[in-house]
Amino acid sequence: MLIYEYMPNKNLDLFIFNQTGGASLDWGACFDIIVGIARGLLYLHRDSRLRIIHMDLKASDVLGSEMNPKNSDFGLARPFGGDQTEANTKRVMGTYGYMSPEYAIDGVFSVKSDVFSFGVLVLEIVSDKRNRRFYHPDHDLNLLGHAWKLWNEGREMELVDVLMEGPLHKAEVLLCVQVGLLCVQQRPEDRPTMSWVVLMLDSENPILAHPKQPGFYTERFPVDTDSSSTGKRPATSNELTVTMLHAR
């Protein structure tokens, strides 16, 4: 049984995706939440008695009172002891859209798996869009691919939620987009540790690397169907190539 303190603000999912039709967060609150989540993960990875891998970090697992973020729901968390840095499992459990490629495909997890989930969450907070079921009229990329495309084109500010309240701090927005993209890179060894993430977010003039291609950077191909009369977005499917094998 897990017992939490009462959280009048419920969870972050309800705020950044505005499911209840309530007021949106301003940028100052969004940035503080991003930094708070990062510090919470850093504590799990470095400062707790055992190194803890959360394994399922997502917006609905971030709770807060007075808008102070608290990482929660440790039902899938795994402790690491000693000098252990990674492990694998044959039973992959978690939330699609937040799982790192190496965990979703091969069952390999480490602190870099949480870093990937954090990066997804950062880009979701900035854009007010979910990584899963993300839709854009100009392409069929997911949110990670869309963010990387905008970054390469120097159009990062277009990722920001147009309904976000209050003035925007452009330097902080650009910092968060780049940090988010660094965290969701395909290869775990390319991703920063949470200690580096916190340092980058806390520094006034951080020197950041250029992010490489994000994980799950695949374009979804729409099914050939007429959806114009219904007003619904077209269904999508993954492109699959099948090689026929013939015996000699």
UniProtKB/TrEMBL annotation:
Coiled coil: none annotated. InterPro entries: Kinase-like_dom_sf (IPR011009), Prot_kinase_dom (IPR000719), S-locus_recpt_kinase_C (IPR021820), Ser-Thr/Tyr_kinase_cat_dom (IPR001245). The keyword Magnesium does not apply. This is Protein kinase domain-containing protein. Residues 1-208 form the Protein kinase domain. PROSITE patterns: PROTEIN_KINASE_DOM (PS50011). Keywords: ATP-binding, Kinase, Nucleotide-binding, Serine/threonine-protein kinase, Transferase. It comes from the Eukaryota. PANTHER family: RECEPTOR-LIKE SERINE/THREONINE-PROTEIN KINASE SD1-8, RECEPTOR-LIKE SERINE_THREONINE-PROTEIN KINASE.
